[in-house]
Amino acid sequence: MNYPHRKNRRPDDIWNVYGEKYPMPDGFEDSTYGNDATPSYEGFGHKFKIWMHDAATFADVWGAEEPFTHPFAIEFSHVGEIWGGVTQDDLPDYQERLLETWDEVLAEIKEYAAVATLDQVQRELY
Q1: SS3 62
Q2: Which letter does DSSP use for residue 18 in this model?
Q3: Segments of the chain with pLDDT less than 70
């Protein structure tokens, strides 16, 4: 895929700063691939994905007509792994959210972990 922002990277480009600006949460790994539109982290056995945007990558993914207000997108499921192109047709509990702050991302991780822990305890008990 051809991403226009990749040709002339600025020093503050998300690709240059994401690791410092947004420290990888515990239990997550850098899941960024060279052909991705934007850098990403994933955790919980490929069931939770965080995409980090700047204005250029946001425009590439969501369209230039969309105002850049959400530097983070998360995707998650409790029943299946998140891979490219996954939708609710593939995973009935699949969710995608646009978030405005890194603190919101960390809160979503905490909430996901609590539900995942509860699910695991219930499976072990029953």
Answers
A1: helix
A2: H
A3: 1-11, 117-126
